[in-house]
Design a protein that fits this description.
The strands form four sheets. Strands 5-14-7-8-9-10 form a six-stranded antiparallel β-sheet, with no helix packed on it. The protein is globular. By secondary structure, it is mostly beta strands. It is built from one helix and 14 strands.
């Protein structure tokens, strides 16, 4: 359950810098967490979207930084479009995923790429996650390293429609369990 309670979301200081902290909590047999979305407040077509983030660790933990088509209320998902700038499985602390979803490009047919570290993890320090997006491509970055470019041509070759030509809004969330990360939290410290 997403809440607005300060136990799940608050501004905090880390190394003297202001940070937004989203915390997942186990409360009996349930979990609470938080989600920020700019729907109705801010959306943008094209440009650079970035966030400097430090990931949590633990099975079943699923933080994400993503964009969703501003037209979702009239054009349902996945046809409205989704750009996952960063998705992370808490049980795989050295890997993140960048993905797009859209018309026929969802589930096992989404276009996705994994980025991984050899000798470090995403839960030990802050890293910069970004996309740069224009009318013909979406570039995915970790710490300014380009690790995937998805083009309009690639989408169309897979039978999809380039729905990334409209404003999208931002979502930052911390989910617990789900299809992407599994259903167990065994070993996760909340």
């Amino acid at each position: 359950t997403y809440t607005k309670q300060t136990k799940n979301i608050k501004l905090d200081l880390v190394d003297g810098l202001g940070c937004l902290k989203i915390t997942a909590r186990q409360e009996g047999n349930n979990f609470t967490s938080a989600r920020i979305k700019t729907m109705g407040l801010f959306s943008q077509k094209y440009g650079r979207f970035e966030a400097r983030m430090k990931m949590p660790y633990g099975p079943g933990i699923w933080p994400a930084f993503w964009l969703l088509g501003d037209n979702i209320e009239t054009t349902p998902w996945p046809t409205c479009g989704e750009i996952d700038i960063m998705e992370y499985k808490g049980q795989e602390p050295n890997r993140i995923h960048g993905t797009i979803h859209g018309h026929v490009l969802f589930g096992g047919n989404a276009i996705t790429q994994t980025f991984g570290f050899q000798n470090t993890r995403f839960d030990t320090d802050f890293n910069l996650f970004a996309v740069e997006w224009d009318e013909n491509s979406i570039d995915f970055f970790v710490n300014e390293t380009l690790y995937k470019r998805i083009t309009k041509e690639e989408v169309e070759m897979k039978g999809g429609t380039w729905v990334y030509n409209q404003p999208f809004f931002i979502i930052l969330n911390l989910a617990v369990c789900g299809n992407f990360v599994g259903t167990t939290v065994a070993g996760t410290v909340f």
